[in-house]
Structures are given as structure tokens and as C-alpha cells.
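Hey, quick one: can you model this chain's 3D structure?
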Amino acid sequence: MPPVETKFAARRDEEPRERSRPFHLTGGAASVRFRSMRAIPTRIIGRAVLGAVLLLSCVPGSAAQASDAGVPRRIAIAPFEALTKEDIGSTVSVLPRLLASRLMSLAGADVVLLAAGGKAPEDAAKEAKVHLLLQGTVSKLGKGYSVDAMVTDLETGKPAGAFFAAAATEDDIIPQMGILSGEIAEKLFGMQGASRAVAPPAHVPTPAQAPAATQAIAVAPVVVAPGPAPALAAVPAPAPAAPPPAPAPVTPAEGWSPSVLRSVSESDKIADALYGVVAGDVDTEGNGEVVAFGANTIYVYRVKGSEILPFIRISRGISHHFLNVEAVDLDGDGKKDLVVTDLYAENLSSFVLQRKGDGFVEIPGTIPYHLVALRDWDGRTVIAGQRGGFNEPFQGKIHSMKWNGKTLVEGEKLPLDVSILPLSGGGIYSLSPALLGNERQWLYVDVDEHLRVLDSKGKSAYRSKEKFGAAANGFEYGEVIRLEGRRAMFPLRRPPRAVAGSKGDPLVVTTEVRKGVLQSVIGSFESSRIVILKKQGGGFAERAGSPKSDFFYSGVDVLPPGVLPRGGRVIASVIEQAGSAFKDRVSRLVLLQAD
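Sure thing. Here's the predicted structure for all 595 residues.
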């Protein structure tokens, strides 16, 4: 593909793609044609009756599916027991939590994790008012292992089901949780096809190859039975794991330039619409933690090799709206804390989750700022903040924020002019410092989702023709617009990731979206993908990209941040189904590799 300065040419090796119907994460307004059509009372009444009949006809079917197994979707899981001579306790100890997360995803189950060393599992489950109890063992079977689970109906005292899986090595035990959870969801909770949905495929499809139809998924909370309680509704693994070492500098291969961005693996389905993802504590090989977030839930996943496994989930009530989540070490202990920009009851009530062991503890108090992380700002990562306005989404200067041991407080002003476009219209979101050539500049995605290069004071020096960092989320602000009956919606664009390429040449990793002429609603698009751009002349040229997808890439980060060597890895959040009155929300995390 011949590089150009201000626009992109289509990849020559890309096969012609059949034009798909536009996909919307949020509903669009009715067309002028339908607004002008005359209402006919008889037709309206007839359609209403027909709709009511169809709706009522669906209810018994749903109820039948939920009651096929004859038991409620509520189950207690006791700690698994290792019946081996080898020390595999660290692996066995995380099995209940992994099984719980998969049952929640597949069947919307309400899972109670029983604490180790407390009451007898039967007594603890009854005290938690749960009638199904799952107990499991891991035994040595020749050169491999056998994972066995027995579910007991505590009301009758009779077995409700027995399940097993075989693993060739200790590393193969954890993937078997997907198979076990699928069988349990299908046989106990009536989720037909669940066992097939989690069976390992022959190859990992890219988001563009994923099926259009997905199974409806419900969200249910994890409840921890009486015993040692984790912090802030998080469910950390019982066996603490040593944090990964701090990333050491990685030098990209001399003269190498990325040409391919291929999919490596993907997580299980996540019953939510993920609005973004950031790297947590990650080692030089890209193994460690990644943090994704939805409207009011934070998901911490662990990346190990090609596996993306659930670790911690932190939820708030529906009155909360998470606008942004960042992972940064605030207190200098070598572990990344979480900084959450939260809109609660229309008020900015941002807060900090401090890392404590394998979990997070919320620091008391709220912070009335929009908060973002600025990586490599003067050689370090800082949190920047901007206050919210009354009739405007933002007000005042952008400040670096300081951690005083208790909260984030306002520090020095950044040398950015927020009174001129694009910062006056887009505020702090998507702002990202970058060393382009020998000059410190800023990367920025404006409210129209065009990639910008700003000088040190915020004046625009470049604007792309294509759209990048598109918003899957937004928030309302200001006074009600009378003609529309609602307030203005502000799009929360995602920041481009500036990384060092070969010979120090800067690369930019970001999401790209293609939109139709009339697709102006937040989240509306025709296709999306991940691209790697390289600074060239007065603009950028594409160096590599993932295949086009009918799903929405809502966020991206590099593992580890700051550099992309040959074989370097990229984590992305993908919304497969945004949710509606008839469909649940479905997302995944996708791991990609640059070659």
C-alpha cells in the first residue's frame, strides 16, 4: 500500500468485501419519511394487538427454558481438593472462581463462593440459602489429571449431576473449566448449546469471522459466603499470586516495521458492553493484567501466554456511569491502582481503587474531575484532571493531579489552551502525549472522531480524513433541547496509543471506524478494526491493521505500554452485541500480535 500523508489508500491485498447493513450501538432517529406518514387508528390498534400476542407467546418459552432443569440458577461452589502427590495447590485454588465466572457468563447464574477453612460446605451453603452445592476434586490419572465435580441438591440430599474433564498437564486444567461450565449450564440450568459454545475451537476466529447471532446472557452478582471477605465486592483468587515484575525497557528489532496485526486469542463472552481497556501490571512479554470497563462494572483479566482469564469484577449500582478507567501506580509501591471517572446522579464523583494484595480497596471520598492518564509526560505517567461545567461538559484548565496519600488534588496547569478548538469542544478525553520526531506534541481525537496532532500549547497541526478512536459511550450535559426533548450527548472518544517503533520512529496504535453518511449517532458504524500508523511527512501512513469487523472495537492498548517490538501484543475490547429490549449485551477481549 503506497503511503500517503493525509489519507489512506485501500490495502491492495484485501479481498472485495460485501457491504453489510449498518450496525448501531444506539438507536437512530426515525427518518423524515416515517415521521410524515399519516397515522391510521385501526392499523395502530391492530399492530398493538398483534405485538401483545407475540410478546405473550414469547414469555412461556422463556420460562420453560429457565425451568428445564427444575432448579433455580443459584449455586454454591466449595473449594476444590487436590488429590495428588504433586503440589498443584495454586492451580486448584483458583478453579472455583474461574468456574463461577463462566457460569455467570453462560447461564446468568447467581454464584456463592464458599470460604476455605470455615464451616462444612453443606452448612455454609444452607446458611447462604442456596440449594445446589458443587464440590470438586483434581486427581492424578496416569500421566494426566482428572477434574471431577459433583453437584448435590441440599433440599433432597440427592445428587443433581456429576461432571468431569481430563487434562494432560497442570497447565491444561484451567482450560477445562470452560468445558465443565458449559456442561453444568446445559444440564442443570437448561442453557441448550452452552457446552458447545465453550468447547475449544480448531482455530481462534477474528471478530470479523464471529457469528452474527449470539446467545442471550444475563448478568448475576457473585456473592461471597461468610468468611474472609474480599474488598469492594471484588472476588480475588484465594491463592495470592506474586505481582509481575515491573516492565524493563524493550528495544524494537532494528529496522523492523509491523506489516501484519493478527488475532491470537479471545476471552469468553462478557455479558456487558465494554467501553475501553487499559494495561495493568504487565511484564516485558505482555503477560499480566488488563482492565476493561462497562457502564458500571470493572473487569480485571489476566493474560498468560495466549489465555485471557477472568480475575476480578467490581460493580456499582445502575445510578453510576463510568466514563473512564485508568491503571497507574499512585503510591509508588510498584502496583497499579485504578482511577475511575464516575458520573453518579449527574455529578462527577470520581474515585480511586488502591491495590491491596490480589484485590482493590476503595479510598474514601470523591474527586470532582474528569481524570485521564498521560503516559510519558515529561518521562513519567501522570493523572490529568479537568472539572465539569454546568451547561458545558468541561470547565477551566487541565491540571496535573497529585496523590497526597489520601486523594488526588489539583497540581500545576498544563500548557494547553482549552479556549481554542479542538480542546474547547472535546475537553480532556483522548488526550495523549507523543514524541513525534524531536518535538513533544499531543495526539488527540476530536468530537468528530478525527485524529489530530496538537502542538505543545494545544493548537491543531494535523487533522486526519479517516475516523479513529470512535466513542462507544457518552454522557448528557447542559439544558434540555426542546425540539429533541433531551440534553446534548458528549462522546467519550478513546485515546490513541503512542509507542516506539524501530530506530525510535513513533508508531500509533488506535481503533479505526468506517461510517456511512448518515451514521452520526454515538456507536453507529459500518465496520471497525485496529490499525498501526506511522508518522510520515505531515500526516500518518498505515503500516498494519487487523481485518475489518462487523463488531465494534471500543478500545485498545499495548502490552506492555510504550513500545511495540516484533511479536509485540495488543489487547482490544470488542462489543459484539450492544444490547436492546430483546438482546443482551455481549463483549469480548481480543489479543492481537504485530509481526
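One thing worth noting: The radius of gyration is 25 Å.
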